[in-house]
TrEMBL record:
Residues 1-20 are annotated as: Disordered. The gene is Ttpal. InterPro entries: CRAL-TRIO_dom (IPR001251), CRAL-TRIO_dom_sf (IPR036865), CRAL/TRIO_N_dom (IPR011074), CRAL/TRIO_N_dom_sf (IPR036273). It comes from Nothoprocta pentlandii. This is TTPAL protein. Residues 115-280 form the CRAL-TRIO domain. Residues 8-19 have a biased composition (Polar residues). It holds the Pfam family CRAL_TRIO_N.
Length: 339
C-alpha cells in the first residue's frame, strides 16, 4: 500500500466504506488528564482542549500532504504526543514526527525487532528502570546504572534499545507527555573500557533521538557517582547538546545532599539516601514485558512502504559515522588523561 493511499484511506473525509474497512480502526481519543493537568497543558504547552482534535487533524493533513510516504501511525493519541512535545507548533511537531521515523530507520541495530522480550536480559540486569513514585512535579524518574552492564554479554546498542522502549512506554501516558521525565544516571564503577564503547557516533545518535527525534520532555538529568573519566564522556556528549538541555545536566558526584535538592529522598531508594526502601526493578520489568502486544500494535504501523518516493527515502549515515570515528580517535587521549 502506498503512503498516499494510506493517508487518503485513513482520513475521516476520504475513502469508501469498503476501503476503510480494510484498515484497522483508528483508536478514538479520550482525554485522561486531570483538570489540573489540563490547565498546566494550556499554560505551558499552548494546548486548548476545545481545539485539540482540530490541531491533531491539521497535523494529520500536513503529514498526508507533505510526507505521504512516511508510513506513520495517524491515530489522534499518537499525533498528539508530537504536538505536545513542540507546544502545538504544527511545523515543529511535523519535523519531530519525521525525525522520529528517520531515527528509527537509520539505526537498524537498535530498532529492528524492537520489543520488550528482545531486551529481557538488559532489563533483568537492572541497567535501566523507573522508580515507583513520581517526583513532586508529577514526573517519572528513569534510573540508569551503567555499572550493571557487562560489555562481553551484549553490545551497547542493547542498552539503548532498553532505554528507548522504556521511554516509549512512559510516553503512552498523557501525564508524562505534559509533565516530562527526570533522568537519574549512576556512573559508579564506570571504567575506561566501558566509556570507550560510547564514542561520538553513538553519542550523536542517542542525543539526536532524545533531543530531536522523540516526543518526550526531559526536564533534568542528574548524574551521581561520576568518576574522573566522566569528564571525557561529557566532552564527547556536550558538542551535540542544545544549550537548553545542557543546562539541565546536574553533576552531584558523591554528594547525596546535592542530589536530594533535585530529587527528594521520599521517592528515592535507600541506595541513594532515600526512604523508599530498596531499589526494586521487578515491578517496572513486569510492566514493560507485559506490554509486548501494545508495542507490536503500535510499531506495526511504523513501516516504510515498499514504494516510498525518493523525496522520503532516508539518507545513509555512513558519512556521519566516518566523521564521528575520526572524532573518537581525537578524543581517546582526553579519555585516558581524565582516567
Amino acid at each position: 500500500m502506498s503512503g498516499d493511499s494510506e493517508c487518503a484511506r485513513t482520513s475521516p473525509s476520504a475513502g469508501s466504506a469498503s476501503d476503510t474497512a480494510l484498515l484497522p480502526a483508528r483508536r478514538k481519543y479520550e482525554c485522561s488528564l486531570s483538570p489540573e493537568l489540563v490547565t498546566k497543558a494550556r499554560e505551558e504547552l499552548q494546548e486548548k482542549p476545545e481545539w485539540r482534535l482540530r490541531d491533531v487533524q491539521a497535523l494529520r493533513d500536513m503529514v498526508c500532504k507533505e510526507h505521504p510516504y512516511l508510513g506513520t501511525c495517524l491515530d489522534d493519541a499518537f499525533l498528539l504526543r508530537f504536538l505536545r512535545a513542540r507546544k502545538f507548533d504544527y511545523d515543529r511537531a511535523l519535523q519531530l514526527l519525521v525525525n522520529y521515523h528517520t531515527c528509527r530507520r537509520s539505526w537498524p541495530e537498535v530498532f529492528d525487532n524492537l520489543r520488550p522480550s528482545a531486551v529481557k536480559a538488559v532489563l533483568e540486569s537492572g541497567f535501566v528502570t523507573v522508580l515507583p513514585r513520581l517526583d513532586p512535579q508529577g514526573r517519572h524518574v528513569v534510573c540508569i546504572r551503567p555499572d550493571r552492564w557487562t560489555p562481553s554479554n551484549y553490545p551497547i546498542t542493547e542498552n539503548i534499545r532498553a532505554i528507548y522502549l522504556t521511554l516509549e512506554k512512559l510516553i503512552q501516558s498523557e501525564e508524562t507527555q505534559v509533565n516530562g521525565i527526570v533522568i537519574l544516571a549512576d556512573y559508579k564503577g564506570v571504567s575506561l573500557s566501558k566509556a570507550s564503547h560510547f564514542g561520538p557516533f553513538v553519542a550523536k545518535k542517542v542525543i539526536g533521538i532524545l533531543q530531536d527525534g522523540f516526543p518526550i520532555r526531559i526536564k533534568a538529568v542528574n548524574i551521581i557517582n561520576e568518576p574522573r573519566i566522566f569528564k571525557g564522556i561529557f566532552a564527547i556528549i556536550k558538542p551535540f547538546l542544545k544549550e537548553k538541555i545542557a543546562n539541565r545536566f546536574f553533576l552531584h558526584g558523591c554528594d547525596l545532599n546535592s542530589l536530594h535538592q533535585n530529587i527528594p529522598p521520599v521517592i528515592l531508594p535507600e541506595e541513594y539516601g532515600g526512604t523508599a526502601g530498596k531499589l526494586d526493578i521487578s515491578a517496572w520489568n513486569e510492566l514493560l514485558l507485559a506490554s509486548e502486544e501494545d508495542f507490536l500494535h503500535d510499531f506495526s504501523q511504523l513501516l516504510l512502504p515498499s514504494d516510498s518516493s525518493p523525496h522520503d527515502t532516508l539518507v545513509s549515515g555512513d558519512a556521519d559515522e566516518k566523521q564521528c570515528d575520526e572524532s573518537l580517535r581525537g578524543m581517546k587521549p582526553q579519555l585516558y588523561y581524565c582516567y
